[in-house]
Fold each of these.
Amino acid sequence: MNKTIALKKLGIVIMSIAVLSACSANDTENTAANSATAETVSSNEAAAVATAELPVKAEFEEEDLAADWSAENATAIDLGSQEETVTITAAGTYVLSGKLKDGGIIVNVSAEDKVRLVLNNADITNSNGPAIDIKEGEKVFVTLAEGTQNSATDGIAYSDTSEEAPTAAIYSKADLVVNGAGSLVVKGQYKDGITSRDDLKLVSGTIEVQAADDAIVGRDLLAVRDGVITVEAGGDGLKSTNDSEEGKGNIAIEGGTFAINAVNDGLQAAVSLRTDGGTFDIVTGGGSANAPVRTNEEPWGRTPRDAAAQGADPQAAAAAEATEATDAAAGTETESTSAKALKAASVLAVTGGTFTIDSADDALHSNNSLIISGGDLSIQSGDDGAHADASLTIEGGTVDIVKSYEGIEGTLITIAGGDITVAATDDGVNVSGGNDTSSGGFGQDQFADSGDRKLVISGGTINVNAAGDGLDANGSIEMSGGTVTVFGPTNAGNGTLDYDGTFNLSGGTLIASGSAGMAMAPSEDSAQATVAMSFSQTQTAGSPVTLKDADGTEILTVTPTKDYQIVLFSSPEVKSGSTYSVASGDTQIVQFETDGSVTWVGESGVTEAPAGHGGMGGGMGGGGMRPGGGQMPNGERPARPGMEQPTAAEQAQ
């Protein structure tokens, strides 16, 4: 799937021991002028540092919040008595009521003037253009009078189709603010619903937008403070588009209740997107069930570019193609036919809010950096649950990825907190080589240096259920804290752990189960000890497997949810040179003494580490860089003591 977007790269500072690899196809520049520094998260050895700067919060002036108006100081306009367009040429407050059957409201005042339009049961329809067209002014307020029902509908075709012509039912070339305690239904039959070519602020009210293309667009800024917002969009739901001017092109949401159904992206920011609160119900591209079918047999775990059209219905095909198109009328505006729920070109930050997401494409996506520090997210995704081309940081919140192709993906993934659950039909947590094509796409060096790619875990609770690799680092893994439970693959072509460099384990709790074909354990020079239990035959899911000390006290236990042949145990309580036993259910399997950082154990006692499969300082490039989707370079896997060997069919997986 081609999931690129043609943007002028506006980035943030991304730092690690080495600058992110030049193999990333999404090199970015620093545009942090409009950002505030977020807390730096790193491993306890400070081996990797990800410094991402949070986008600024939305700012609302006192006049933005004011929805009061006085009839004595306002001009009343009865739309029912008007036969054509009403033009406003002076600053002031105008109260619009009644029904304008075929005409529009034009605001054309000086650049220093402010106008308030009070919609007081106003029904405005214009078959030839926008219902409300704000041509010039400093700021225009659309106030929804309390308890009123209002509507604005444009035509299917506009009489003015020039380059600078309006494209929305409510269109403004000035800053636009919508507030009040009434309701507004906007029908953008031509293209968009509500568009401001400057800042657009939604403060309050009940707003429903139906749009042939994009529903709500703030070119320079889209800020939402509160309100009930319902969107049906043939394009994107909420959007900012200015990617050429520093400090602009952002979306900032403080609160509100959102129901967004979009063929393309739910929220798309040309630069940054930040949510501090709100309740979101987002469906994109018809939902995750509408995504193209993928299998991990496809090259490097990604869909070929032309696969989006194979066997998909029209909406799914439109959602998945991710083609690029530039709106000539907007100049610097960029559109994408991707179907992501939340997308930003530079920084995507979720600091709060409650999200229910069902997306055909990625649920959370940043072309640069993604930060999750709060909120409650329930995700069903047809592709990645959370994806960042560069750094992805989770330091708080609840992230429940119920369905995904790959759960969490980025070049530098840092998990310092939060409650994270991942279900994936391919890899659970995947440290990739950069943008969405890096896992098997075009124009990428699939064997590029993996030294800059890293998974760093210092806190949080992480539960992974993956049909592909559980934790897949096309680079290295560092774990110093947190609790990680992985239910890995049942096929022999993937591993519960999969890394190219090293897995330095110095703290936290790690429990992992899965197949034995590509089994790996943490590196032998790790500071914390690990027990790797390998069974001679595949074990049936559902029975607890327990690690006990010499006194029979339970240290760690896990009940695998899938069939397995390998179980890994590690915690600060596991020490080298101590006696332990492993039991399945109530039956003791083996008793042994640990020796070193990694002790491999079979049913008859301590055994050697499988050649090239972890516990040896990283092994032989195990993490996801195997050609052919899992086979070794010579097409065979070495025999391992006490382990079933994969069949030819399994090797093909």
Note: The helical segments are 62-65, 314-321, 648-651.
Amino acid sequence: MTGHNHYVMCAQFHPKEDLIVSASLDQSVRVWDISGLRKKHSAPTSSLSFEDQLARASPAQADMFGNTDAVVKFVLEGHDRGVNWVAFHPTLPLIVSAGDDRLVKLWRMSDTKAWEVDTCRGHFQNASACLFHPHQDLILSVGEDKTIRVWDLNKRTSVQSFKRDLDRFWVIAAHPEINLFAAGHDTGVMVFKLERERPASTIHQTQLFYITKEKHLKCYDFVKKTESPPMLSLRKLGSAWVPPRTLSYNAAERAILVTSPTDNGTYELVHIPKDSTGAIEPTDIKRGHGTSAIFVGRNKFAVFNQSTQQIDIKDLSNSTSETIKPPSGTTDIGVGEPGSLFFLTPTTVVLYDIQQKQQVAELSTSGVKYVVWSNDWQYVALLSKHNVTIATKSLEHVSTLHETIRIKSACWDDSGVLLYSTLNHIKYSLLNGDNGIVRTLDNTIYLIRVKGKNVYCLDRGAQPIVLEIDPTDYRFKLALVKRNYDEMLQIIKTSSLVGQSIISYLQKKGYPEIALQFVQDPQTRFELALECGNLDVAIEMAKQLDRPKLWLRLGTEALAHGNHQTVEMTYQKQRNFDKLSFLYLATGDQEKLNRMAKIAEHRGDFTSRFQNALYLGDVENRIQMFKELGLFPLAYLTAKSHGLAEEAEAILEANGLTEDQVRLPVLGEPREIPKTVFPTFKSNWPVKAAAHSGFEKLLLAEEEGGEEEDDTNGYEDEGEPAEEIEVDE
């Protein structure tokens, strides 16, 4: 497309129409019609309008170079020097341009003509770029004078100005959906937003008072879930383009305190009319300067001025009755219990009693911005950019948690659980510091109230939203902390609270017997059963898995419990014959020791055979084994030492020896094998069984229909014999 006679600095498509606008150093702005180009390259349709058919049939008017696809529709001349940037309005027939003449010009166009509307003057150097605000009647421009300027589209007057010390600005862009802008300068890119997006709001019992984007005061009823019509208009508060910062409500006097950051902080005291018929302008307004203003009693409020580091206690006539000097460096004040204030400094939070005129408590925590009280006023959450600190009402530290992304808001559940929101999550925190995710968010919201499964919140458009959550996770953990086993059992039976996270949590907190109720995987159930000493479940899972390592671990645990019948079974599964023999010796089971001796003989294992013969006191068997091995001296000594003279003589004769040729050690009288005093092998050792936890007792009572269950933990089958050993023939 030809027409400009100097460098073209910028070109933009129209968001909806077949138009292009361009800016050039030839001091002109041109609007191009590209409808012919679009029709030329669009897919043909069977039903063309008469005008389209006529346009395709007749040759289009060509420019001086013969181009018929895109033609100049308007030429806008008004800049005295080169034009650097131009942009269409997203919805209105408006154009804005910025040039080297330091001017930002506004143009309007119709179907037949375009003309200059007005000029925004204020830049001291070349205006580099400009654009329309995507959602508000504002123009933004940047320039080589190192400033970003915001203009009122309707009045064409400067609203705000931001300046960098060293860097010139060259380009600016708007995010298509959220309230973010990016400006490029000499050393980088700066991303910023023009206004605070947190709606000013306050809660009183079952009502939420908040200020909309149109600066109207509204009320939302949590019980009826209805939104009231506008009750007041606060358009005249502060600047037209700067939203209110905070809102405080006095129910007794039906009055509100609204603060705005305009002019280093201003506040207004307004009474809400009893019969609100719409967004009426307030009449009796009390104004003043202050960074923050909150009610501290029925007929008084506190105003904090950060520049003077002073707090004034005022009555409802706006007269100062008392002045407080907060700690040096105080950045804000927060609401405390009736008659008290919080002083927020960069490193501490101070609780101040207004009546006693003294500091009551202090807590070291940095960067606190918001103070959120629990419903019973026993705990307070102190929110900073990335941290949540929970303290008692006397500022005794309870817990602290850290988030990697910004914390936006918080509120308390009726059960004493803190819910807080980040940019994309709603999370929870218990008083002991345990925390987790409740749900993800599509958009940033600000929590107001939690009731059951409903979370009441405001979005960035100051619209009330009710989100549904599943509180099962944090309610279960809270019941665990409080040892409320009835509620825990109810949650387990009525919800699908299953997952590795809850199992790991229960293990970490020392409740494997509860974690066992959530698990179906045999390996995990085996591990948990061993941890909580539930041998019945461990045996069942070991039989399912049937792995040598599991039998070994089960045997070790059962031995520690004195459950030798389970130990016997694990040794049999492992075919650990030596340990079995020693177990039978320890329990005095002669019958099974005899069986182990026969098995050893059948296996040809002379070491095991000797051990079993020794355990049994079977001298003949030992002598026979020595003979079979050719160890005749040992056979002779064994026979001689046990008084078997005939057997000893027979061994000597067989080897051609006499008794004089054999040197014997001095031997005493042979001793007998000790007799079994008590047949302990008939039952497990009488050790005290581990008592069931409160949760296990409740669970067993449920399973048995309310009957009490003995605390056996793996000892109920004590009379049952162990499995018979299978021997390979």
Note: The first strand starts at residue 8 and ends at 13.
